[in-house]
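Entry 14. Structure prediction run on the chain below.
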Amino acid sequence: MSAALKEAADDPRAAIRARVAAAGTSFYWAMRLLPEARREAMFAVYAFCRDVDDIADSDDPPAVKRAELARWRRDIEAIYTRPPGAGLLRVLAEVAATYRLRREDFLAVIDGMEMDAAADIRAPSLSELDLYCDRVASAVGRLSVRIFGTDRPAADRVAGSLGRALQLTNILRDLAEDAARGRLYLPRELLSGQGITEREPQAVLRHARLGAACEQLAEIAERHFAEARQAMRDCPRRVMRPAAVMGAVYHAILVRLRRRGWSDLARDVKLPKALKLWLALRHGLL
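Output returned:
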């Protein structure tokens, strides 16, 4: 056995750490601002989210997805009710106890993944989309702020608003990718308001009024970013640095999406590493 494999077998945190580093996400940059113990706790939460997200996005039949998510639901219940198991579950049990993470926030994430697993989401109502964003993103934020070091009500407001802002940005960034999977997260009220009656994802993306609907959703995301920044003012500045970095990075993506426009969705919008580093320094250290 190689030294790396032995480390992963002896310490599941090593495997989790390697997985997050390999993903190369903006999340990794932001979490590096945390002290080691808190950073590794966040990596464990990320690994949980990645696992359930991979289940929802798999090509398995819906019944298989539901069964796998139900297993995760039992696993989360278990880390609160009996001695922890092995691997990721053991680490999650330790993290949940150390930072007093709420069981209902873990379960809300699974609820959100079940919305994806049950059937391809197509043009949900605004209220359904808001519930989805709360489950798959804001619930993760509520877990995160406790690991960052605060359980103030203002921190939950940051989680609620920033989670929604990030998820709406993801939706606008991934329109083409989601449509290829048969999914369409643009809300029906915005589509209907622009005279878009189609619900087949590819047909919606070809519609001449798509850009106007996307701009309306981008404005909703902008409001959530602004609400998150306002709520951060009522939180300890140092504690919320990772959230500030994530907000800055994703807001920069939203700005670039709007500059690119909505007629060439195949053109990726990515931030250069140098810009990510500058945003991390600006919002994480100053």
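The CA atoms of residues 76 and 106 lie 7 Å apart.
Filed with the rest of this week's runs.
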